[in-house]
Amino acid sequence: MSNEKQKNVLPFFANFTIAGLSGMGASVFVHPLEVLKYRMQLSGEKGTTSDHKNSFHAIINMAKKEKLSGFYKGISANFIRQLIFTSTRVGCYTTLIDEMKKRGQSNVINNAIASMSTGAFAAFISTPTDIAVVRMTADGRLPTESRRNYKHVFDALWKIRKDEGITGLWRGTAATVFRAMTANVTQLMSYDAAKVYMMDNYKMENGLKLHTVSSMISGIVYSICSNPMDVLKTRIQQQKIVDGKAEYSGLVEVASTLVKTEGVTALWKGWPFYYLRVAPGTVLLFIFMEQLKKGYEEHFMKVL
C-alpha cells in the first residue's frame, strides 16, 4: 500500500474514492459474516439463554428462519457506511502517510498517530450508518413485535432521528471511535509492515500473492485486538430505548455488565465470524485497492 520502495503518490480524491469503492466491493462478499458476527455478539446478553449453541448452529438457525435474504439484511446500510467510513479512514491515512514520506517524517510513532486520528474521525462521522448496520442486521433475531423493520438505510436514519433525537444517531460513539482507532492502527500498519517484511526477507514481488499474505496477517492482528470493543459497540447500539431511557448509561456500564454476567471471554464473542469476516474482508479490501490504484496509475499517471 504505502510502504512500497517506489510508488506514485495518488491525489487525495483518488485515495478517498478508491478506498470507498474497495470497501463496498469487499462488503458484497463478507456481509453475511457481518450479520452472523452481530447475531453471536448479542446472543446470551446479560446472561440470558443464548440464541445459538455455537457458530454452526447460528448458520443453521438463520438459514431455516430467514432464508438466504436474512444473510444480506442491512446491506444498504453497509454500503453507505463503507462509502463514508472506509473512504475516510483509509483515504486520509494513505494521503497522510504519503505526505509524511515526502517530508521525511514517516516513522512508527507518526504513522500510529496518523492511523488513530484518521480512524477516530472516520468513526465519528460514520456512527449513524454504523448504528443502522447493527440494528438492521440484528433485527431478525428479535420477536416480531419488537423488530424495528427498517426498510433501508435512509429509513433507519430517519426513524432513529425521529424516535431518539439527533443524539440517538451518535449512540455508542465512544466505543465506535475506540474500536476504529484500534482497528486502523492494527489493520493498516500491520498490512504495511507485513508487505515490507515479505518483500525484504522473502523477496516477494509486489503482486496478488504479496497482497493476500499481507492481508491475512493483518486480519489476524486486527481481529484479536479490536473484537472486545466491537462487542461493546454492538451491545450499546442495539440496546432498547424505553421512554427515552437507554438500557445502558455508557461504555463502562455495558463493559462491567457483560464481564459480570457473561465472563471476560464474552468480550471475544463472535470472534470466529469476526475473523472470518475480517480476514477475507481485509484481503478483498486491499486487493481491490491495489488493483484500482494500479488502474488509476496506468490510465491517469502515465507520465510520472
Describe the structure.
This protein is mainly alpha-helical and 304 residues long. Helix content is 71%, strand content 1%. It contains nine helices and two strands. The chain has a two-stranded antiparallel sheet. A hairpin with a 2-residue loop joins β1 (241-242) and β2. The protein is globular and about 60 Å long. The two termini are 18 Å apart.
Which labels suit this protein?
single chain, 304 residues, mainly alpha, disordered N terminus
Low-confidence stretches: 1-6
Strand proportion, as a percent range, falls in under 5%
- SS summary, helix count: 9
Counting DSSP E segments of at least 2 residues, the number of strands comes to: 2
Q: Residue-averaged pLDDT, rounded?
A: 88
* Main beta-sheet strand count, sense and barrel state: 2 strands, antiparallel
Which structural category do the helix and sheet elements fall into?
Answer: mainly alpha
Rounded radius of gyration (Å) = 20 Å
- The percentage helix is over 70%
Q: Strand order across the biggest sheet?
A: 1-2
Net shape: globular
N/C terminus separation: 18 Å
Helix/strand order? HHHHHHHEEHH
